[in-house]
Write a structure and sequence with these properties.
mainly alpha; 1% strand; Growth Hormone, Chain: A; 473 residues; two-stranded antiparallel sheet
């Protein structure tokens, strides 16, 4: 005769619950599966890092093409170089407008049905849109439909990334060991520099292979090679989906489901009960976004721009090398900041990082003035990238910790992605306009310092969340 325990197993669902405070050697039984906590956490590290790497790879591939390719192929000829570049930056910024909408859509399902299934959906949305960009006909082939489709697929990229980041952050934080949430949460943050290296490294290889010069509007790179990074995203997408299908639901969210504490309309609930964290979280992220898109998207256009147009005249190939090298300082700053944030707290770590960004913004004339050498530009990029790692690293712990479980996906996603509009969507556009109007990088640096000052002010109102219980409702 079967025991009561065996009978219970027969009628159970196939899921794994892992105690987030358990040691790695602890095994937590479920009715149909037994998974060591250490195995589950390693799966989470791999899945969250690979997933965000793919998403950011897709995003950065577009960012690079925004400067090097799209002004030539997707906008009417006869426009000035500055107008074509600004038009290209406008479609680049469109994704940031879509990201809050993506955080609402995917956040709804993430807080209603779970983190795992929603993350699969966001990855598919981003990956398919990126692949289709690689197949797009140009303006010369189909006219105005070309930039219209480019804008549509860019919008879809924004939707996907809008749901991706918060889901990956929750996957990491809700599975983390006690006292190590910032360290666990920094793994998906590494997807940003990793994705950047892969995307820009691939463009670098293609530029070398085709002998392309940024001043050329034709040749094999413009004809077909630029499409390769977008088409290869399909392979990365398949890898990411495979890894994510092997995951279990997070224990914190599963606990909320078991206790019947999920809400019917997460968006309404988060605006009703957590509107203060929404606003505060948005401004906490402002400097992070402004810094990164200045030292990647804008500085690329400024660095390779012709001196007669106010640029530095650095060869495109040389600038790509500088970016691919200095991005590793970004990667180095992420784990360092995660480690510090677990020991001294999120708030002091971010206050110091933001103060450094303010000073960095005031140094633009020193590094980017007239007669700037490539070495000086490399130092400028390296410092900016390292500061980016310091401010970005703790964010995947800070924002989720600000919201209760039943609206955490929606709330953290909205804050993160609304900040992307204010700090990233318009930043390359504003910076290009400022540099063009004043023929100097100084106003651009002042603009960055202003964004960082707003973040610094918001940080003084931030409550320290290092010791908060993630299972609170």
């Amino acid at each position: 005769m079967a025991s009561a325990r065996e009978n219970a197993h027969e009628g159970a669902t196939d899921r794994t619950i892992v105690d987030p405070d358990a040691a790695d050697s602890t095994i937590v039984e479920t009715p149909t599966d037994v998974v060591p906590v250490g195995v589950q956490r390693r799966r989470v590290i791999v899945a969250s890092t690979i997933g965000t790497t793919i998403e950011f790879y897709d995003f950065y591939a577009y960012a690079t093409a925004t400067v090097a390719v799209f002004p030539y192929l997707f906008f009417p000829k006869g426009e000035s170089e500055t107008v074509a570049l600004l038009s290209s930056f406008a479609t680049f910024g469109l994704a940031f407008v879509a990201r809050p909408l993506g955080s609402i859509i995917f956040g709804h399902f993430g807080d209603r049905i779970g983190r795992k299934a929603t993350l699969v959906g966001s990855l598919l949305t981003m990956g398919i849109a990126t692949f289709l960009i690689g197949l797009l006909p140009t303006y010369a082939q189909i006219g105005v439909a070309a930039p219209a489709l480019l804008a549509l697929f860019r919008f879809c990229q924004g939707l996907g990334l809008g749901g991706e980041w918060s889901g990956a952050a929750l996957l990491a934080t809700e599975n983390a060991a006690k006292g190590k949430r910032a360290w666990a949460a920094m793994w998906p943050q590494l997807g940003a520099p990793f994705g950047f290296v892969i995307a820009n490294g691939l463009f670098l290889v293609l530029v070398l292979a085709t002998g392309h010069d940024i001043t050329e509007s034709e040749g094999s790179f413009i004809d077909w090679a630029w499409r390769v990074p977008f088409l290869l995203s399909s392979i990365m997408l398949a890898i990411g989906l495979y890894v994510r299908f092997k995951l279990n639901e997070t224990p914190v969210f599963q606990k909320a489901l078991d206790e019947g504490k999920k809400v019917t309309v997460p968006l309404g609930e988060v605006f009703r009960t957590a509107w203060r964290p929404l606003i505060l979280g948005t401004f906490v992220m402002l400097a992070t976004y402004g810094l990164f898109y200045l030292v990647t998207a804008w500085v690329l256009s400024y660095g390779i721009g012709k001196p007669e147009n106010g640029g530095l005249g650095i060869p495109y190939l040389d600038f790509l090398v500088l970016q691919v090298i200095t991005i590793w300082l970004f990667a180095a700053g992420v784990p360092l900041s995660g480690w510090i944030a677990d020991r001294v707290g999120r708030k002091p770590m971010l206050i110091v990082a933001t103060a450094l960004i303010i000073l960095y913004g005031l140094s633009f004339k020193l590094f980017l003035g007239e007669g700037t050498t490539e070495l000086e530009v490399g130092v400028f990029l390296g410092i900016g990238m390292f500061f980016m790692g310091l401010t970005f690293g703790p964010m995947s712990a800070v924002l989720p910790e600000m919201f209760p479980t039943n609206v955490r996906y929606t709330g953290s996603g909205i804050s993160y992605n609304v900040a992307s509009i204010l700090g990233a969507a318009i930043t390359p556009f504003v910076a290009t306009w400022l540099a063009s109007q004043f023929h100097s990088p100084v106003p651009v640096g002042i603009y960055l310092s202003f964004l960082a000052l707003l973040t610094l002010i918001s940080l003084f109102f931030l409550r320290e969340t290092r010791d908060d219980d993630m299972a609170r409702i």
